[in-house]
Design brief:
Layout lengths: L2 E5 L2 E4 L4 E8 L7 E7 L5 E8 L5 E3 L7 E6 L4 E6 L8 E6 L8 E6 L1
Parallel strand pairs: 2-10
Antiparallel strand pairs: 1-3, 3-8, 4-5, 4-9, 5-6, 7-8, 9-10
Length: about 110
Amino acid sequence: QVQLVESGGGLVQVGGSLRLSCTASGFTFNSGWMYWVRQAPGKGLDCLSTVNTGSGRTNYADSVKGRFTISRDSAKNTLYLQMDSLKSEDTAVYYCASIEFWGQGTQVTVSS
């Protein structure tokens, strides 16, 4: 059974940092793309960042470029999103995903 389980969300003040983790079971990180996606209250899905688990190539949305860093540890089958300089508009449910599977999401709330 394939599972993606996010953790690390929570409440943080504006300007603070959080690191999200996404641990995969039932499949391995050895190739293909992994994604961090968020959904703010009342809004659609927003793809923030991607990483190719084979090459390590990364991409970022303009809204998070320079503030968020995606990484992966293939040995641990874990994807990370380091989020710095958080803004109130970063408040959302954050999901990790592969092409086929999604996690259940973790809530990030940034308070001013």
